[in-house]
Amino acid sequence: MLQNKLSYAFPIEASDFTKAGDAAGKIKKILKLAGLPATVIRRVAIIAYEAEMNIVIHSVGGSLSLDLTSTRVEMASQDNGPGIPDIDLALQEGYSTASDEVRALGFGAGMGLPNIRRNADHFCIQSEVGVGTNLEVWIDIGVS
Amino acid sequence: MKLQEICELLQADVLVDYDSDAEAFTACGSDLISDILRFIKVETVLLTGLTTLQMIKAAQLLDVKAIIFVRGKRPAKEVEEIAKKNDLPVLCTKLPLFEACGCLSRHGLKGCSEYAVQEDEHVAE
Ligand SMILES: Nc1ncnc2c1ncn2[C@@H]1O[C@H](COP(=O)(O)OP(=O)(O)O)[C@@H](O)[C@H]1O
Ligand SMILES: [Mg+2]
Q1: What's the CA gap between B59 and B112, in Å, rounded?
Q2: Rounded to two decimals, what is the model's pTM?
Q3: Mind listing the pLDDT tens digit for each residue in B68-96?
Q4: CATH architecture for the domain at B3-111
């Protein structure tokens, strides 16, 4: 079992669709090496991917962080704007402001934030228009 | 269902090869990445008409057994190379998405919602 907290940070660039998804891939690898259960890895991978894509697609840039403790996986994302005017609306399944160009790549289902919330044991999103968006999630490892 | 059987049913070309005993228990068909992340189960083949690098990366993230491009779509060479590098089997069929999914369904392959796996039990609906 992990005794200390392990922390990682991943800068995410806006609109870089070649690198997009790589941070989530790295996070998945880290959890695999840490020997976490496959179900936990899958949930974290989905959350990381959706959070990463939201920074790439909707923000001007930001970062993703991962903290591993003995009992849970903590993830956070932060970006530097433009922020979300109506969070309740953004959390609805199917709601998306993605452009046609981005939709042509397969994004813009409006399921990202719902997917994150659904896979998280703790979910908190805060946003201020003109400042940025912060997301915090925990996934319990379920140690026996 | 063995990937070999899937390949024969769909008369698919193999771009990146699979293990001869590789098997899938469900299938998922969509062109929207987040919908796939929402509904896909383990041990799945993914059918899609979207041949983007982003789709390959999402498939990889979810450990899909194979990605099957429909409607005769072929990925760009560099996209195919990335799949190969990551041991992600890639098949191509001329059938449209609905027909390819229908064909596999008729032959007994289950859809994501028909296949309850323990894995999803923790998730609040
Ligand atoms: N980091 C962000 N910065 C600004 N807006 C965001 C951010 N994340 C999400 N949004 C807004 O919330 C909407 C819903 O997000 P999501 O559920 O991930 O769906 P999608 O990414 O497919 O549009 C987005 O279309 C966008 O308007
Ligand atoms: Mg999103």
Answers
A1: 15
A2: 0.94
A3: 999 999 999 999 999 999 999 999 999 99
A4: 3-Layer(aba) Sandwich (3.40)
